[in-house]
Amino acid sequence: MQLMLYAVAALTLLGSPLSLPKSALWTSIIQIFNEKGEMESGILKPKDIYSFSVSVPEKAKVGEPCIATVTITNIWSQNAKIPFHSLGPNLGASILDAKQNSVPRTEKARRLLLPENGWDYSLGLKELSPGQKLVWQVDLAECFELSPGRHTADFTHLLFIGSDRPIKFEIINSK
Fold this sequence. Notes:
Blueprint: E1 4-9, H1 10-13, E2 28-33, E3 39-44, E4 50-55, E5 59-61, E6 67-74, E7 80-84, E8 91-97, H2 109-112, E9 124-128, E10 133-139, H3 140-143, E11 149-157, E12 161-162, E13 167-172
Parallel strand pairs: 5-13
Antiparallel strand pairs: 1-2, 2-3, 4-6, 6-10, 7-9, 8-11, 11-12, 11-13
C-alpha cells in the first residue's frame, strides 16, 4: 500500500488568521492517507520526514550577493508531498545584527521571502521521493538592509520546518 503525506497545519484547521506567530511553526501535524483517501495512522513530526538546512557564506561584501542555499530532503521511506509555492516565497528568514537588533527587510523581500511571522496560504504540493532533495537559493542582500558587521540568521520553510540553530555570518566592507 502506498502512503501519501500531506502537511496540514493544526492551526489552519481551527481557522487561524493569515499571520501566525513563530511559535506556531512547530504545531504542524502530518496526516498519512492511503490510496483511498482514508487516514492510515496517527501523527508524525515533520522532522521525522524531512531534513531542512540552509547554508550562508561566512563572509560577504557590502553591496554584493549573500546567497542562502536552502535544502529540504525527504528522509522518510515513502514519497512525501511538501508544501511549496512555485511562483513565490518558500523561505522565512529573520536576521539580527551584532547588538541583537532586527535587520529591516527590503521591499524586494515581499516577493522573495515569506511574510514575517506568517504564511499567505498560496501554495501547492511538490512530491519528493525518498532521499530526493529540493534546493533553491535566495540572496539575503536583496532581502535585508545588511550593513557591515556580524549577523545571526534564523530560517523556516512555510509552517512546519525550522532551522535547528541560527546561522552566523559577517558582512564586510569592500576593499
